[in-house]
Q: What sequence folds into this?
């Protein structure tokens, strides 16, 4: 298989081909373009994902489900939130299959399109009052499609960064797709916060909440433009010149790399638990139970997510300097202890204490999440790397986040906030055990 745009020709151990001289059409993309392309896709994808999470906490229940019982509406809305997480591993396997067989670039473009189209259609979907049970049925279908798209996005973006990274800088390059989530969250939260300044509650519930979903179409166009300018990664191009692609990457993954898949999935559980408990659940609890005005709580989340963005480069730098395992073990231990802060700080009713708690949790989320951009690709060989990294990432999403807001809602109803804190600590303990069982991956060669 020829790779004209990779700019590289490696020596095949069997055929000993001659080196390829770089030409004007085969120049590799700049570092800035690689970083921006790996960042912009995840920022857009997570913006799409987060606006749904925020809408779940505010309007999805009343708009798409019968109005007989507000509590039942909330629980139903949280269940639709979890559907996408169930779809994400399927998306990781689907896009991973083609990403490992035909290349990273085309697969990344396709995943962005699936996610963007699904999000935009949610913005025009009629509610329960207009089309009855067809509304929640279509909502679940589009939410499932969102999960398929996002399932294929992260693995490709992480590989794009890691497979272009120079020696000793893989953690730093792997940081760029990890910066997408906090930026996407800021865009999502900021859009709802801006709407709350210009619309009253009735207008917001009637049509205002749809605007962030429709705006996704513009962001997708930007992301597609950047992605289409890329060339294939040199690591993948080298592998295709030396070997035929694996026919069934999934079968190869389960046959030879099942342990890495399981440990990678468990290692990322704490990231998801920290994030969705401190955003989706905390927003719902703060507005509905503590009676904090929605715009005020969204502003508090905007402050807190800055700490997540700040932790990301720090943890990525530390991962390159000290290794992935030491950083994850330290951050995971702190996350375990943070579960004991949830009840006294979130339940205090004090805006300062709640903001401080949200900032702590999201800082720890950034610290545990940043090394994953390098760690998960390092766990797998090139032939199954897209499938393996994406599947591990999204299986961890099922375990850590798919039902996190729903479980937290049930826990707070039956046991109180301290039980929710125990949920966070349990998730951290699971990830700590998985990382402890891993070997250090920092010095592994990806080629």
A:
């Amino acid at each position: 298989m020829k790779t004209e745009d990779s700019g590289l020709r490696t020596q095949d151990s069997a055929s000993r081909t001659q080196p390829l001289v770089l030409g004007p059409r085969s120049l590799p993309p700049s570092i800035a373009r690689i970083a921006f392309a790996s960042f912009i896709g995840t920022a857009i994808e997570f913006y799409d994902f987060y606006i749904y999470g925020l809408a779940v906490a505010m309007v999805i229940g009343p708009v798409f489900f019968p109005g007989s019982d507000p509590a039942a509406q909330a629980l139903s809305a949280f269940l639709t939130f979890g559907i996408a997480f169930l779809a994400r591993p399927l998306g990781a396997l689907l896009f991973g299959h083609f990403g490992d067989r035909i290349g990273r670039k085309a697969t990344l473009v396709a995943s962005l399109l699936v996610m963007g189209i699904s999000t935009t259609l949610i913005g025009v979907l009629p509610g329960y009052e207009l089309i009855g049970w067809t509304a929640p049925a279509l909502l679940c279908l589009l939410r499932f499609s969102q999960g398929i798209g996002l399932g294929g996005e992260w693995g490709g973006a992480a590989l794009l960064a890691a497979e272009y990274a120079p020696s000793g800088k893989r953690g730093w390059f792997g940081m760029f797709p990890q910066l997408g989530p906090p930026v996407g969250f800021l865009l999502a939260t900021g859009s709802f916060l801006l709407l709350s300044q210009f619309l009253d509650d009735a207008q917001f519930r009637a049509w205002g909440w749809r605007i962030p979903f429709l705006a996704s179409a513009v962001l997708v166009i930007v992301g597609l433009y950047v992605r289409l300018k890329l060339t294939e990664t040199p690591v993948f191009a080298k592998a295709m010149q030396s070997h035929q692609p694996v026919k069934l990457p999934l079968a190869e993954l389960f046959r030879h790399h099942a342990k890495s898949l399981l440990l990678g999935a468990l290692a990322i559980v704490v990231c998801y638990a920290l994030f969705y408990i401190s955003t989706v659940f905390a927003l719902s609890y703060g507005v509905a139970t503590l009676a904090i005005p929605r715009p005020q709580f969204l502003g508090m989340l905007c402050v807190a997510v800055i700490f997540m963005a700040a932790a990301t480069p720090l943890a990525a730098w530390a991962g390159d300097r000290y290794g992935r395992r030491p950083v994850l073990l330290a951050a995971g231990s702190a996350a375990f202890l943070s579960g004991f802060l949830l009840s006294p700080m979130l339940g205090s009713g004090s805006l300062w204490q709640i903001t401080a708690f949200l900032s702590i949790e999201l800082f720890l989320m950034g610290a545990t999440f940043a090394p994953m951009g390098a760690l998960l690709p390092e766990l797998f060989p090139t032939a199954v790397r897209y499938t393996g990294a994406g599947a591990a990432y999204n299986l961890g999403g099922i375990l850590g986040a798919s039902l996190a807001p729903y479980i937290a809602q049930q826990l707070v109803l039956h046991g109180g906030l301290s039980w929710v804190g125990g949920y966070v600590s349990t998730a951290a303990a699971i990830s700590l055990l998985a990382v402890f069982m891993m070997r250090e991956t920092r010095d592994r060669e990806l080629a």
Remarks:
- The CA atoms of residues 101 and 245 lie 5 Å apart.
- The radius of gyration is 22 Å.
- Residues 31-64 form the longest helix (34 residues).
- Residues 1-27 have pLDDT under 50 and may be disordered.
